Amino acid sequence: MAEPCTITNQEFALFQRLIYKIAGISLSDAKKVLLVGRLTRRLKAHDFTSFSQYYRMLSSGEHPEELQTMVDLLTTNETYFFREPQHFDFLRDVILPERRGPATFRIWSGASSSGEEAYSMAMVLAEHRDGPWDVFGSDISLTVLDKARAGLYPAERVAGIPQKYLRKYCLKGVRSQQGNLLVDSALRQNVRFGQVNLTQPISGVGDFDVIFLRNVMIYFDPETKSKVVENMLPNLKPGGYFIVGHSESLNGITNRLQAVKPTIYHKPGAR
To answer: Which of 1, 39, 142, 266 has the greatest CB tally within 10 Å of its CB?
Structure first.
């Protein structure tokens, strides 16, 4: 493992501003150790001896692939299947019965990371939706999107999946994949992933009956939270639901949604 490089307060401030500009993430001073730990290998890869050298390369505009690598390393967040299960219960018990019909039911995992949330949605829809459906998962990190598309997870990562879904929608790895589980290909065919920077205007993703944006706004300041929600709301159908994480709220962020219960909001209007 590469020996961590040291970073000055001035250098750290440069990276704080850079990741805020690119991804809207407010990196607190407490994250200095995390940044050093995650980026030290990149300094070594380029034979740099200081974070200033690495910053100059990133800010030159001549190395977009390295800038994406930096974003991937600093925005990857832990997730797991059926996190905050009450939201999946609400999807099954309230939203799906409301939105029966021949139209394709569409749901967006706005910060999908490595795909566990999107596949959790897909399992609920495959089991309880009478009619066509699809799931879209987006993230700013290309690395986690590649993992999500593969649908392959260490067996210990799937503890949250209900046994009924686990038996029906996951395949146990054998030989070289022993110890892993693969999401069933028939399920994966209805789940697509794409890169979206939520802090920028969004186009080409279509309209959705439900948007999950969970456990990502805790990294945004109020201005960025408002911008992200306003960017996403045009893609939520009238009558659709917008769901945030258990430690998040849209109070003071937007007046275009109505609270249904804590963390669950409704967009006024007929379907």
So the answer is: 39
134 labelled catalytic: no
Which domains does the chain carry? 9-75 (1.10.155.10), 85-266 (3.40.50.150)
CA angle 242, 83, 71 (to 5 degrees): 80
Is 221 catalytic? The answer is no
pLDDT of residue 1: 45
Question: Percent of the chain having pLDDT more than 90?
Answer: 83
Residues of the chain with pLDDT under 50: 1
Query: What six digits make up the tokens of 227?
Result: 């911008």
> What token pair was written down for 27?
């990196």
pLDDT for position 254: 95
How large is the angle between the packed helices 64-75 and 32-45, nearest 10 degrees? 150
Per annotation, catalytic residue among 42, 106, 129, 139: 139
